[in-house]
Write a structure and sequence with these properties.
The complex is a heterodimer of chains A (254) and B (187). Chain A is an alpha/beta fold and 254 residues long. Chain A contains six helices and five strands. Chain A has a five-stranded mixed sheet, sandwiched between helices. Chain B is an all-alpha fold. Chain B has a single domain, classed as Up-down Bundle (de novo design (two linked rop proteins)), CATH 1.20.1440. Chain B is rod-shaped and about 95 Å long. Chain B starts with a helix and ends in a 23-residue tail after the last helix. The chains are: A alpha/beta (254), B mainly alpha (187). The A-B interface holds A 8, 11-12, 15-16, 19, 78, 82, 122-128, 131, 135, 165-169, 245-254 and B 42, 46, 117-119, 122-127, 129-131, 133-134, 136-138, 143-144, 147, 150-151, 169, 171-172, 174, 182, 184-187.
Chain lengths: 254, 187
């Protein structure tokens, strides 16, 4: 009895200490949807993210917050992300917030959905978007491009589009097959051309007209930045809408 | 006669005041108790969610490492114990053993590069890591509510009231030592 009471006391003290610590580690104040505290985002990405966030707010009622910090030091990045989310209360009545946090020193990207988005954005999907859209850019140190690409992907998913997950990277022999067909055609045509000269030339006339048309791979036109309209940043940021999160989402180190 | 009525009225007022105080204290305790229960329900939700993810994860790992039977058996065993546990204490204990079994399951994946690169394995690992973070968050919130409960019923004069009502301090949900580290998906 006495021991369990002691243990209880110890626990209480520890938890009070932990709470006190979390209060000391004050979070910065939100400056808008895009908060480049680490100063690593270029102008263009910042305004693109800003426009995306405003569009999301208007169309889906989803509040997207993009945050870069130099370090999350006393806490690990995930803990910091959950803390910041609930401190800023990102998302509206339906807890429809989404926080993308990048910590430079830790080399960490964390994405956390509010309670209301857990259904549309399961952790596996969140992770897949980080892998496919974010990481390639982050590995090059291009944080702005990575965050923008990720934000666009999330916006498309939230708008109801299906996100194409890259299948397992199996060796693709498709090109080899088409190459063989191509080779076969070339060989056949050449055979057709080589043999006639031995004859009197009666059938040789047609060969000159044979042109081999090889359809080249058609690359898509220049990638346009998605179809967002010409809404201007409205300047006034009235704070976030009071959403909560439960610590879900996914993260990566790069 | 007149004096008697006055005394009676004073007594009545005191009784009413005490009664009102009693009611407000009681309601406060009910409120706190409900909060603790609700927070615990959230923790249970996440534990359940994790238990639901595990069979898929095990199946995926089996596809690559079918001979690691011992680990699969341990995970299945810990999982069914968690699902069977009824009291919070049992659940906490079962959860701790599930933590360690899962830790071993994920550790063997290190030895299979093909498994580590499998997209569905990565998704499942994300879901699992997300759920463990959720458990951590809900556990923290549960512990906060337990702390409020415990300090409230230990304070004077609530402690007298609480002990009359038979209300007891609750125990915290501590993280099992190995569970602090959420599995990370690294590249």
């Amino acid at each position: 009895m006495n021991r369990s009471r002691k243990a209880l006391w110890l626990c209480t003290v520890l938890i009070v200490l932990a709470l006190a610590c979390s209060v000391w580690a004050a979070y910065p104040k939100p400056q808008g949807y895009v908060n480049d505290f680490a100063n690593v985002l270029d102008r263009k990405s910042q305004s693109e993210l800003q426009i995306l966030a405003e569009q999301l707010r208007k169309d889906q009622g989803v509040e997207l917050a993009v945050v870069t910090v130099t370090s999350t030091d006393p806490m690990d990045p995930k803990e910091y992300t959950t803390g910041l989310f609930n401190e800023w209360k990102i998302g509206g009545q339906e807890d429809s917030g989404l926080l993308m946090l990048l910590a430079v020193v830790e080399g960490a990207i964390e994405v956390e959905p509010g309670y209301g988005l857990e259904g549309v954005l399961p952790d596996g999907l969140i992770g897949a978007v980080i892998d496919q859209e974010g990481l390639p850019h982050f590995k090059d140190g291009d944080y702005g491009a990575g965050l923008t690409a990720m934000a666009k992907a999330y916006a498309r998913i939230l708008a109801g589009e299906k996100f194409e997950m890259a299948e397992e990277k199996k060796e693709d022999y498709g090109w080899l097959f088409s190459f063989f067909i191509f080779l076969l055609i070339v060989l056949m045509l050449r055979r057709g051309r080589r043999y006639p000269p031995s004859g009197s030339g009666g059938s040789g006339g047609g060969s000159g007209r044979r042109t081999i048309f090889v359809p080249g791979p058609t690359f898509g036109g220049p990638r346009t930045g998605g179809g967002f309209g010409g809404s201007r940043p409205s300047g006034g940021f009235g704070g976030f809408g009071g959403g909560r999160s439960g610590g879900g989402g996914a993260g990566r180190r790069f | 006669m007149k004096k008697g009525t006055l005394v009676l009225i004073i007594i009545a007022i005191i009784v009413v005041l005490i009664g009102a105080n009693f009611i407000s204290r009681y309601n406060r305790l009910v409120e706190l108790d409900e909060t603790v229960e609700a927070r615990w329900a959230q923790v249970e939700n996440q534990l359940q969610r994790r238990a639901d993810l595990i069979p898929n994860l095990v199946e995926t790992v089996k596809g690559y490492a079918s001979h690691e039977q011992q680990v699969f058996a341990d995970v299945a065993d810990a999982r069914s114990r968690l699902l069977a546990a009824r009291t919070p204490e049992d659940q906490m204990e079962a959860n701790a053993s599930l933590d360690s079994a899962l830790g071993r399951l994920l550790a063997i994946s290190e030895a299979y590069p093909e498994l580590k690169a499998d997209t569905s394995f990565i998704r499942l690992q994300d879901e699992l890591a997300g759920t463990e973070n959720r458990i951590a968050t809900e556990r923290m919130r549960f512990n906060e509510s337990v702390q409020t409960w415990n300090t409230t019923i230990r304070r004077f004069p609530m402690n007298i009231f609480a002990s009359v009502m038979g209300m007891e301090a609750r125990s915290f949900f501590e993280a099992s030592p190995g569970a602090q580290q959420v599995p990370q998906v690294n590249f």
